[in-house]
Amino acid sequence: MSLSSLTLTRYRRLIMLVMIVALVLITVELSGLREQMSVSFLRAQLEANPVTGVLAFVLVFVIGNLIQLPGWIFLVAAILALGTVMGGLVTYLAAVTSCLVTFTLVRGLGGNALREINNPWAKSILARLDTHPIRSVALLRILLQTMPALNYTLGLSGVPLRPYLVGTLIGLPIPIALYCLFFDRVLLLLPIG
């Protein structure tokens, strides 16, 4: 395959990725699901039935992460409905699932497109990621949690699935625990029932 056809294939894959994400966003907007992605909606789902509520919570977290919703909305709803510890654990489960789904979708559609960038700075960053992938992903998760831009970047970076998953599993508990403690304290001060 020639260099020009490889470049064309890469751009087609990236365009398909953008189109799929745009389709998800449009579907969520037109279906009215975006308005349902609120603390009160998520809390009601979790309180209504713990099993189906958790499944709905995970699904909505995945969709929310794909369309760039902040993760704290989900964490607050989980804390309100399930308490600090269980809310944190359910959020951790949903966050890991969301990161894994996003990674798989982005990698499947976009491949490792960032490897094709001919920039010394980008190559240096990717080399560090290659040298210590688990540590790099864990540190990025501690700093940026489930930030959608991070999920997309790591999906396109060429980092293998196993180090990505292990780094995510290691890196997410610290920020989630800190947010749980913070929101637990804030919610004690607010008159929320």
Walk me through the structure.
With 193 residues, this protein is mainly α. The protein has one domain. 82% of the residues lie in helices and 0% in strands. It contains 11 helices and no strands. The relative contact order is 0.11. The model has no long low-confidence stretch (mean pLDDT 87). Its main location: membrane. It is found in: Cell membrane.
Distance between the termini: 63 Å
**Total E-strand runs:** 0
| Tally of separate domains | 1
- Beta-strand percent range: under 5%
Derived from helix and strand composition plus strand pairing, the structural class reads mainly alpha
Radius of gyration: 18 Å
Low-confidence stretches: none
**Mean of residue pLDDT?**
87
* Biggest sheet statistics: none
The percentage helix is over 70%
Number of helical stretches of at least 4 residues: 11
Concise summary:
With 193 residues, the chain is an all-alpha fold. It has 11 helices and no strands. Keywords: Cell membrane, Membrane, Transmembrane, Transmembrane helix.
